[in-house]
Request: fold
Amino acid sequence: MSKTQKEYLYVGHYTDVNGNYILKVGTTNILDRRRQEHNRNYKRAKEWTMPKDGTFEYDFSVPLSKYNTLRFEDLTRQRWIEENIGEFIRNDRFVCKEKPKKVTVTIRKTYIIELD
Reply:
């Protein structure tokens, strides 16, 4: 990977077999590959399992440097924990009993991501 190649900070979701809305913030250099990994891995997860016919969907993505994607992922995760968006579980996921109407990601400006 060249030094100028961007990584993506993304927000995405899926609904688990129990109807919980699972919200995720993460980073990747290839969005399509990462979606395929989520679809495969979350269908095999012991908890918060994605239904066999479910898919991981992106709600937002922005290209940044690798350093900034990791930094803003951490800041976003911490903000969502403080805002009590849902129960935080490993791998930067939040289990929401009810789907939030919107979430925010602040980089230089604040992005409001409508989830409806």
Observations:
- Residues 7-114 form one domain.
- Helices lie at 31-44, 66-82.
